[in-house]
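Standup notes
- DV: blocked on the single-chain target, sequence here:
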Amino acid sequence: MPFSLAVVLHDSAAELALLLRSLDAHLPEHPELIAVDTGTRDGGAELAAARGAEVIERRDNPGFGPATNLAVARARHDVCVLLNPDCELRDGGLAVLAARAGASPRALHAPRLLGIDGRVERSAHPLPGTVGALAGAAVHAPLLPRFLRDRLEPHRAERTRTVGWAVAACLAGATATLRALGPFDPAVHLFAEDTDLCLRARTAGVPTLLHPDVALRHSGGHAVLRGGEPFERLAARRRAVVGERRGGRALALDDAAQAVTFASRAAGHALLGGDAERPRRQLAALRRARRWDAA
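- DV (later): unblocked, structure below
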């Protein structure tokens, strides 16, 4: 079925070139491509235009969410796929995902994402702020029975299942459904847009479905992580979204689950001789975000 692609560009020419080649290699019919340029200096917008895309210029960089909203508003087909330029198709799975979104328009549809090393990314997550998530935070999930493991780490699931939220590097939905949801909150410039979208969608009766039989390669963080991982902003944004969409009790449970997860990872890396710096910094950022909110 025909579908639209909404792609946001921010110095993404190299990644976009790989994505476009993969589209040519694996899709017999080209989808409608709508690219929003948020300040490209490397020719990405020109590359998209040469490929036949409709290019929307927003060099004032309104943020990922608002830019995506502009693209979805211009989509001509019944199904629209939100797609980061740092994704690559491995096969014709993207068309399969779009067809599923057309057949089930009251849901958001996410594929499995694979890192450049082929490993499964943590791109699908359980509902934040539950007792179950807190109870499982300190447990090494692969050691649990399968039904519990898939609940705590849904990105590992082998069958289509509902998840709490999915990373929006690739997310398909009926265009009308996406527009009714926003899809993104225009007030949010960056970070946790996908968590917020999926939680709002869930409240509106629109579940998020992971389809692990559809997989895309995802290099990840090409635009936002060049200056290092912004632990402080990530922690603050997650807390803001969970608190607003799930309430104070869920926020307290999620804070506890996050703290236990980071602490156990840091301890495990330290014990096994790995790099414990990242989870330590994540834990420190969470503590600072909580203190800032309490002040």
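- Follow-up: The mean pLDDT is 92.
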